[in-house]
């Protein structure tokens, strides 16, 4: 303790946060404090008054304590921070929005250096090519508004306006226009990245092509710090129709079969998601055309379900109005509520076929088994296919491992904590989750060792997770990791490992 206090008195409070605190942490903080860069860059350490709020991710089920959180305002400052971490052998956790299911935006363990790119908000649009330049700290809601105001453009992202583009784009990116335009990661045409030495690299089809392949689908924090994206945007259609149908839970089997059997052969303008909870079913459709065409197209699906919905809501409008509706937020898209946090345990599976009767019954039976009064269990089915099966052949991506997927399954449970403390566990919720996922895994074709899952809904307990997320690309990803980060500086519990 005396040695550390002699090194730098200002980090004395840091030591209380780490049972095995060493001079590494003191030296790291001293190095970060010594960066003579942009005055807008700022540092949060455990003695900072904002530390306990700054370290929070969206999922407060975790209580990880980073050694420091650095918010660079420039690429040079970010590079200097990487060099500090490399000098003292401290692992780096990049953070764009902090929505990792497993808290990896906090490092996934105590002691990491979090480099938060929230100040990288640059945006420009080339109206001729439709390519947008986007800072890696941009949230989806503000991005959608900037694209719209730049000429009514869109990119195929998700629905949650507070999600950072860095995580979703590097892992895939599925949303309400993905069957028409593909996954978000397949629309990336270039990136700017800082590697483990703090060196700037331009990543594209012709510049660092191996990284270009790896980052698009497996790049969520494993290879370096991405600071900027160049993404192909698309002119939004003149009309978009949103459709919401609600059914009683008792209609689950009919709704499930009607939705999936219709959706797998639906036009690419159709994107559907069916949310099943313990009290009701909500079927959402985003259709890229007028209401008259949407109603005519979707009518066979409703007829196949064969049950009158409890309610229906069909609205025709602009793309940006549809995006605001799907956000589920009362805030404007360009002002997402960043104060929302939740306790959550979730995961994902994807299927190259429709679900078996056993799998449908497993889901229904578990949703009827309420684990706790304060908990809400859910399953969301998303219809994949369309353009996601036909990405550009000239620039293959690690995400292409998922070509041929018919259905994506997002499942989980959330709970409330009256004490408002991070890391509060709901034992009954975790037990429910463990049993549910075990039954799902056992019912999967080939069993737990044959699973395929979506890496943006990353799950620590997933069996054989490397192959489930990345398929036969694992050895190639490991070699790329060795080539660009041989000391494993960018590491967390489920980062791409060295070979």
Automatic annotation (TrEMBL):
Oxidoreductase keyword on record: yes
Cofactor(s) for this UniProt protein: FAD
Single Gene Ontology MF annotation: oxidoreductase activity
The FAD-binding PCMH-type domain, residue ranges: 62-236
Family annotation (Gene3D superfamilies): 3.30.465.10, 3.40.462.20
Signal peptide per UniProt: 1-23
Keyword annotations of the record: FAD, Flavoprotein, Oxidoreductase, Signal
Similarity field: Belongs to the oxygen-dependent FAD-linked oxidoreductase family.
Protein name: FAD-binding PCMH-type domain-containing protein
Protein source organism: Actinomortierella ambigua
